[in-house]
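Checked the freezer inventory, then went back to the computational side. Two predictions to log before the end of the day. The first one is the construct we discussed on Monday; recording sequence and tokens without edits.
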Amino acid sequence: MRETQQLRLMQLASSSLPVGSFTWSQGLEWAVEIGWVTDTETFAQWQIQQMEQNFFSVDLPLLARLYHACELDDISTARRWTAYLLACRETRELREEERSRGAAFARLVVDWEPDCVQEWRAIFADSQLCGLAWLGVRWKIPLISLALSFGYSWIESAVMAGVKLVPFGQQAAQRLILLLCDRYAQGLDQALRRTGHAAQMDMVSRFDHPDPVSYTHLTLELDLTILKRKCKFKHFSHPKPIFRQIIVGSGIFIPLHTGWHTQIRMPSDSGAFRPCPVNTG
């Protein structure tokens, strides 16, 4: 890369880029509050899990697809992969986060490159990833360099959020950045090379491990509905079968149509879920 391209790449990685990265901490506040993240060690484990289940499985493979679509000026394909990315954000909270970053990044793209056509701008507003890929192509930044910049920006934002929330000091923060950068570099090339049906199945399989923190924020209204029904129906009965997954607190409640049998899947110490059946009927 030439000097101008390198400087623009640094700008994209800058923590001062106004896209709201520090506003969204991917559930870290709740993880700290309920005791999943208590120190630098558990924080590192938390971020590596986010990296492996999100960046390596979804974001980086889709960044590669979007980059190639932008190279071909293929708006239809870019729109399809952006919709796929939003579908991989399994809760409304995560989709709103994605769109918020996308809208902020779209404003930057329009300011930097005013000749960007409206069809592309509309896609950028749904996801920062597409706008980033388009800028990479426009500025002739190689995909691998763009992915490194994207990953570093995420790592730095996450660690700076941890400084305030966990908390830990600046020296510990720099050690964490080194650790997370090393892990990111190890998985980067393989993640970008994920193509074809197997890669798409990897993206789908992440729903076997949904984001527990996001799910605890998801259904407060459903929780209130359950409480109302509890007062109305003595035995939690309901005239029609119910197959919706309802989350209360930090457990996932699954009401079945044969009364209200509840299965609570509580997060274990490792962050995975462990089943704990309870009969409330």
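The second is the one RB wanted added to the comparison set:
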Amino acid sequence: MKITLLGTGSPIPDPHRAGPSSLLTSGSDLVLVDAGRGVVQRLAGAGVFPVFLKGVVLTHLHSDHISDLNDVITSHWVMSGPGTTLPIFGPPGTARVVTALLDMLAPDIGYRINHHDDLLSGPQVPVTEVGPGQTFSLGEMTFVVGATDHRPVEPSVAFRVTNGAYSVVMAGDGIPCQSLDELTAGADAYVQTVIRDDLVAAIPNPRLQDILDYHSTVAQAAQTATRAGVRHLVLTHYVPAPLEGTELEWASAAREHFSGNIVAGPDLTTLDLATTAQ
């Protein structure tokens, strides 16, 4: 199984980092996790078009995690053959979001159907809302849903993804909690949004200060990884976004609490579990 960090940025626009999104690859199966700003361009940078996706999974419905879901849906639709579907899984509220996106896209959908004889209907995007304890499969990947603590954002979920050989936890946003510990225990890799609380605390902006109580710090993510006994800790969705080439500072902060492999890098950073088995 391979993890590609498509977008490692934050809600603050950054010319070098797309919004939060990741790509899971198992054999020929590809699944998108979250769909932040610039995700389709980053998919292209990874050599993937939306039409190749088995599906999309969403950890929560904050705008920075879904802002380009409309682009994923449209690009998948116009590049697909008739009847092709793009399954979307996410927490309660996902169906409402997708319905609203399709309503927003209605004029464009109409234009394209009128222009292209082979387009007989709009995007086929079946939505399944999921909660803790539920499971589903996309291709050869099985997803187990767990609760996360990103309050007041509720509900928010994480996914433990297995393919028979490896297991990965895609945690999204949130702070440490028992349910995340249970979901992550014994996984091969744990992917976590992280903030540098020391840097955020130094910025005199009350709205930015508010993020301190519902995101894991680098240290907290490393401590969760240690409790879980994972082999790989993958840091992403950095707040505030580091300058290019300075991600090792974040990894060094995590090293104080975690002795395994730490992955921190720019957009399109990849961890291939099959080539890092030891």
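For RB: The mean pLDDT is 94. The chain has ten helices and 14 strands. Let me know if you want it refolded.
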